[in-house]
Fold:
Amino acid sequence: MAREENIAAQERFAEGVNSGNFDVFDEVVDPNVVDHDPAPDQGPGPEGYKQLFGTMRAGFPDLEVTPEHMTATDEDVALAYTVTGTHEGEFLGVAPTGRRITARGVQIARFRDGKMVERWGSSDELSILQQLSATPQQETREEDKGLVDRVKDAILGEEERGGR
Structure:
């Protein structure tokens, strides 16, 4: 029963994202959820997800997350997904462009009693910014960057030098 309950909770979470009914997060996200990969400025618990997806929907009012592949156990749900939307509002300091974006992502979530209690994940934010012909607005000190950010910088540097 736990596996089916976890899948139902994950599907309910996605339904909240796609419909804009973020109150669903109160039902399926534990108040003490541990997010190992939070978005910049994402707060804790269900409110943090409301904030994150509120920002996303403000920039992309037709935001849709489409599951591409899902696998589940009695504790975890792993999901590969595609995010699509039309840039009709400001997003990360980028004025609306009217461009349609598509990005891929993965998430693994651990559930207990039908609520997400732990999450790991990654979406291709760099691809979104590239599709908007933008670069990240916030400067990060080199010593504060993680491995992924350093790799992104190296790739962008190669593209600017005509590589890749």
Summary: The mean pLDDT is 88. Residues 137-164 form one domain. The beta strands are 29-35, 64-72, 76-86, 100-112, 115-123. The radius of gyration is 17 Å.
